[in-house]
Design goal:
74% of the residues lie in helices and 0% in strands. By secondary structure, the protein is mainly α. It has one domain. α6 crosses α11. This is ABC transporter permease.
């Protein structure tokens, strides 16, 4: 397992994707800070050219709790795409680059190879989440957000990690799609379909019954008048994540690899 995990880490380190994902979440944290900066003083924002003379932002507050909520929603919405891209790349690259035959010829159980891939992607996604949190601390402090306390910071980190774990769980089926489709295309297609359906089903009020909608609903993105997902929603996320992992393992173990 350690050798397989090391190989996956080496592949990631030699690609540009870690830098691209890190940059994407850096921009997201910075944008959240910009929103907080604007909400602190709308007249100042207009004077600096950040808002048009007739534009306004209403219904928001500029403090630490609000900023942590915004970062959490970033992980839920942006993570469903970027975490999905990481998973699809990790599994799809073996087929697109023609290395799958060499990989399967190694004296390493296929279950171990899949487990190593999932372990590396999970750690990768959690590190991006921690990066977003730390950047949020720096940005929020630099613009002088109010409402800071150790309890607020701990709650913000907890919600970020819970959202990240749920998002990681719901993107695991994309690994199966990339494997069955023998490349990136099927995985990316499944990812976009899930993201689209998550938005539509959540708007219809049935998001708690659709695993890919649950992480965003957990962050309160639907508004204060919507109840958070119940036990059923969280259970579906866990079941979906387990199904994605077990389905991918089963496919790698039993599918025809004659190509």
């Amino acid at each position: 397992m350690s050798a397989a995990a090391w190989a996956e880490l080496l592949k990631a380190r030699r690609s540009r994707l870690p830098w691209v994902t890190a940059l994407a979440f850096t921009i997201a944290a910075g944008f959240g800070g910009l929103v907080m900066f604007i909400l602190q003083d709308l007249s100042r924002a207009r004077a600096l050219g950040l808002l048009g003379t007739k534009a306004a932002l209403t219904g928001g507050t500029a403090d630490w709790p609000a900023y942590f909520v915004l970062l959490t929603q970033t992980i839920a919405v942006g993570g469903s795409v970027l975490f999905g891209v990481i998973v699809v790349w990790t599994f799809g690259r073996e087929f697109s680059q023609g290395t799958v035959k060499d990989l399967l010829a190694l004296p390493t159980p296929r279950t171990t190879i899949v487990a190593a891939k999932f372990a590396v992607t999970a750690v990768w996604c959690l590190l991006l989440t921690l990066q977003t949190y730390l950047l949020g601390l720096v940005i929020g402090n630099s613009i002088g957000l109010s409402g800071w306390s150790a309890a607020v910071a701990a709650s913000g980190l907890t919600n970020l990690l819970l959202t990240a774990v749920m998002t990681i769980a719901v993107v695991t089926p994309f690994a199966l799609a990339a494997s069955v489709g023998r490349g990136y295309l099927a995985g990316v297609g499944a990812m976009f379909l899930a993201v689209f359906l998550a938005q539509v089903i959540a708007l219809l009020g049935y998001g708690s019954y659709f695993p890919w909608s649950v992480p965003a609903l957990f962050t309160g993105i639907a508004g204060p008048d919507r109840d958070p997902p119940g036990l059923l929603g969280y259970t579906l996320v866990a079941v979906g994540g387990a199904a994605g992992v077990l389905g991918t393992v089963s496919w790698w173990k039993h599918a025809d690899q004659d190509h």
